[in-house]
Amino acid sequence: MARRIPTARKTLTTAAAWTTGLVIFFPILWIVILSFKSEGDAIAPPLTMLSAPWTTEAYTTVQERSDYFKHFWNSVVISVGSTLIGLAIAIPAAWAMAFVPGRRTRDLLMWMLSTKMMPAAGVLVPMYLLFRNFGLLDTRIGLVGVLTLINLPIIVWMLYTYFREIPGEILEAARMDGATLRSEILYVLTPMAVPGIASTLLLNIILAWNEAFWTLRLTAANAAPLTAFIASYSSPEGLFYAKLSAASVMAIAPILILGWFSQKQLVRGLTFGAVK
Amino acid sequence: MTFTLRALLGACAVGALAAAASAETTITVATVNNGDMIRMQGLMDDFYAKHPDIKVEWVTLEENELRQRVTTDIATKGGQFDVLTIGTYEVPIWGKQGWLIGLNDLPAEYDVDDLLPAIRGGLTVDGTLYAAPFYGESSMVMYRKDLMEAAGMTMPDAPTWDDIKAAAAAMTDKSKEQYGICLRGKAGWGENMAFLTAMSNSFGAKWFDMDWKPQFDQQPWKDTLTFYLDLMNNYGPPGASNNGFNENLALFQQGKCGMWIDATVAASFVTNPKDSTVADKVGFALAPDKGLGKRGNWLWAWSLAIPAGSQKVDAAKAFIDWATNKDYLALVASKEGWANVPPGTRTSLYENPEYAKIPFAKMTLDSINAADPNNPTVDKVPYVGVQFVAIPEFQGIGTAVGQQFSAVLAGQTSLDDALAAAQQLTLREMTKAGYIK
Amino acid sequence: MATQHSRAAARLMISPAVALLLIWMIVPLTMTIWFSFQQYNLLYPDRTGFAGWSNYVYFVTDFRFAPAIRNTLVLVLGVLAITMIGGILLALLLDQPFWGQGIVRLLVLAPFFVMPTVSALVWKNMFMNPVNGFFAHIAKAFGGQGFDFLGQAPLFSIIIMVAWQWLPFATLILLTALQSLDREQMEAAEMDGAGPLSRFVYITLPHLTRAITVVILIQTIFLLSVYAEILVTTNGGPGTASMNLPFLVYLASIVDNDVGMGAAGGVIAIILANIVAFFLMRAIGKNLDA
């Protein structure tokens, strides 16, 4: 641990790491820059573009044209709502699977995951008919329902791998002390499971936030989240680089910031608890 | 957790607020993200002043997204929209299905006879007008007067394809990133196939004969594509197989194209000094022909229609009336100038002396009048539509054929193979759909 | 270890979740299977009825079907290859001590949060456009010509876009795994004269096996259903060069409005996905067990 690292080597690593990091981040950086330029400058060669005056024109236009905050709020409600409901359903299921595994548990899990590979387009019309009959079209509740169910397999799997790491002996010990099932879950299991639940929560908020098929095709004016907001900038007539950049920045910024703040949790979550 | 709880409570509060305000009628308008529609959204104060009891919610989407979204909704009777923005392709099909509400009862002041006959004809099925045109377009040649002059050439008002080729050759200077001609190459029934179908009409080609048998194995299609490929490979910009309207517009505005044959609405973009570096150097000509009696120009109108099943027909009609009548044109002219008025819908606009000063006004009108959706081709055909075939299958077939032609342009396959594939896939789809027994 | 009591409780707890899961998977699945045997085109409301296997036959005999299967596999394998190799190299680099570790981690992580649609739009317009894109501007600055990425190398371009989004995911998981590597073992090996390469092959790589498995598994699930990137950029073309299975299903059910054929395509896709999942579990599933 306490090995001395020669400064020369550290400098070299620093240079290499920063270069790679910036290259990977570059496309995002680039649209941030473009979003503060005028449309005419945004398609100019890079050097001309960079030296052109800065302006917030594109943001003003985008905000005038579409109600960003409405879309943003819909995104928040839909992604947070679907994740919370998903967790509420998945926690008991995953708990049971992890501590009382059946012979077919693993196959069941794999099958659940494989349903995620079904192309959504193939189910659109059946779903649309269902939604119409239940009056769920263009409602946030409807979208919360769909996204909950879509991401449920991932949630169950993640929690399952997490819960499996909790040693069964602890439960045995608690039981010896005469704990009821309720207090067993409440006081013994929950504190140990919280990190896993937190990472599952985060990853699913991200997945739900970026879901762009159902959120676009089951909404109209009321429940449309940021994915629909972006769809109105995708290829209009005329120059659009600056406006598209501004809209893109506005759509990804909230989730990017959330992701950055919670990256430690996220890394654990992404690994499905399988990597320590 | 408290945050999310508050978030959910907030959501409820927002919902309650919306309910309280719904004493007025709220209509949802689905529209495409084109400039003229966006401009309309900025002029809504005028509508609200005239109709304080109607509130308009917008759903603005990219063209293809919009078409798919609206089709799903109308076909399943989802009832999410009260006003739809659709084109001359959908109106005949949907009108026949009984999916749209007729607009024959618009008020007298609307002056439906003022609509351009070609456009109105395209939106009428069996005597019923099913959609009100918001703007109409044909296609024409836009060219750089300065480059033509420098090459010692002049562009006739009604050029032939050979004139176009000669001009493209003279204006091309690849070392200066200056390409003689920019044309659509991006695959899609509304992208490259719109252009190529219109072009093929002037070469005497057609999609189907009277028995609905596809005609890609006939010489005229081969001639059309050979000529197109020759133009694009020698005088076109790089990456043309991914260029649609927008990409070409950007190229032309930057002064990289000598000519561009595309929608007449592009004229107001390329002559707008704010975005275009060549605003004062653009000339206009009719789409070319080959002496066979048909020109390679199309006809399209983005139009507003009401889906059958809308619960708010009166409010929707009031909106359509407002958005497509003469007063709206005058409103745009007073706020944004005549050049930004939605073109191509009304005779009175072209009789207006103020509008006649716009350099592209006359050429737009002539182009629209030169297109005839009911007799699009040299030979007789069983279908309606200039740059499309107004049957439900065309979106799918047109896009698949467009992929083939786009692949030839990209150099990924040979012309003969692409034509054979186009013939085969069209035959298959038409057989499946029951046109060919 | 499980008592009668806890088993019953477990079944009780598992039931609402499993019931919901089943509803979700059974109801749409049943509907899809039902529609796949129906003649149902949105634009022909009056042509309905039992279609037999014809939807399946038409879907499979489409000339785009074979290229779509091939491209689906190429896309998955291509992205996996790039993200695995790139991810391992990046993780090794970021595992070294250097200044600003926290910030570089954030930079590398960022693409994972970008909506697929946004990522595709940005790559297509701002970077890969052969005239106004960033790469074209760079090429021109050096006297070259813009390369037409989406026309000349469509599938490759899409692989790059998708890999950009998934590289952070692979890197982070592998990095996390690397950080738990036993340093003393490494140092001992170094003392014994093992070179960097053999240390990597005999110590690091085995340690990473489980993380690699997780990355492959999860990425495969998501990559098999990639379609937004194709829709935004190439529409499956030119020709069929970038057509994959989900996109073909999309064309059938949404562009052609043929609900029956779209459903048939969906069923075929699920079957293929299950085959892939089955082999995947056979091949690497055992690495998951601790």
In brief, what are we looking at here?
Chain A is mainly alpha-helical and 276 residues long.
Q: Which CATH class of the domain at 65-242 in chain C?
A: Mainly Alpha
> Number of helix segments of chain C?
13
Biggest sheet features of chain A: none
SS element count, helices of chain A:
14
Number of domains of chain A: 2
Query: What's the total count of β strands of chain A?
Result: 0
Rounded mean pLDDT of chain C is: 86
Shape by Cα distribution of chain C:
flat
Rg of chain A, rounded, reads 23 Å
Largest interface: A-C, 88 and 109 residues
User: Strand pairing plus helix content of chain A: what structural class?
Assistant: mainly alpha
Task: Give the overall shape of chain A.
Answer: globular
Largest sheet features of chain C: 2 strands, antiparallel
The fraction of residues in strands of chain A falls at: under 5%
CATH topology tier name of the largest domain in chain A: MetI-like fold
Structure explained in plain terms:
The complex is a heterotrimer of chains A (276), B (437) and C (290). Chain A has two domains: 81 residues, no CATH class; 166 residues, Orthogonal Bundle (MetI-like fold). In chain A, 74% of the residues lie in helices and 0% in strands. Chain A has 14 helices and no strands. The model of chain A has no long low-confidence stretch (mean pLDDT 83). Chain B folds into two domains: 193 residues, D-Maltodextrin-Binding Protein, domain 2; 215 residues, D-Maltodextrin-Binding Protein, domain 2 (3-Layer(aba) Sandwich). Chain B has 19 helices and ten strands. In chain B, the strands form two sheets. In chain B, strands 1, 2, 3, 6, 7, 8, 9 and 10 form an eight-stranded mixed beta sheet that branches. The longest helix of chain B is centred in the first third of the chain and has 19 residues. The termini of chain B are far apart. By secondary structure, chain C is mainly α. Chain C has a domain of 178 residues: MetI-like (MetI-like fold, Orthogonal Bundle), CATH 1.10.3720. Chain C has a two-stranded antiparallel ribbon. Chains A and B meet through α5 and α7 of A and α1, α2, β2, α4 and α11 of B.
